Amino acid sequence: MRKQFLELLLEMIDRERSKLEELWLEWGSTQHPLVYHQSCKLDKLINLYQRQKFFCSC
């Protein structure tokens, strides 16, 4: 079950990273609120994945 959760998190990270890349190309700066918000969202998902992976024995 945890392995499936980790796989889902990886899919979400990939999806959010793609959104960030699109926003970066459109707005070109981390100072833009949309780019900054997406960056924070991606960071939170990556941190969650790292914490879960650390405690996973799979």
What does this structure look like?
By secondary structure, this protein is mainly α. It is 84% helix and 0% strand. The longest helix has 26 residues, at 2-27. The radius of gyration is 13 Å and the shape is elongated. The model has no long low-confidence stretch (mean pLDDT 89). It holds the Pfam family SpoOE-like. This is Spo0E like sporulation regulatory protein. InterPro entries: HLH_DNA-bd_sf, Spo0E-like, Spo0E-like_sf. One of its GO terms (molecular function) is protein dimerization activity.
- Morphology call: elongated
Strand content is under 5%
Number of strands: 0
Q: Tell me the number of helical segments per DSSP (H or I, 4 or more residues long).
A: 2
* Secondary-structure class: mainly alpha
- The structural domain count equals 1
* Low-pLDDT stretches: none
Order of SSEs, N→C?
HH
Organism: Carboxydocella sporoproducens DSM 16521
Pfam families: SpoOE-like
InterPro entries: HLH_DNA-bd_sf (IPR036638), Spo0E-like (IPR018540), Spo0E-like_sf (IPR037208)
Protein name: Spo0E like sporulation regulatory protein
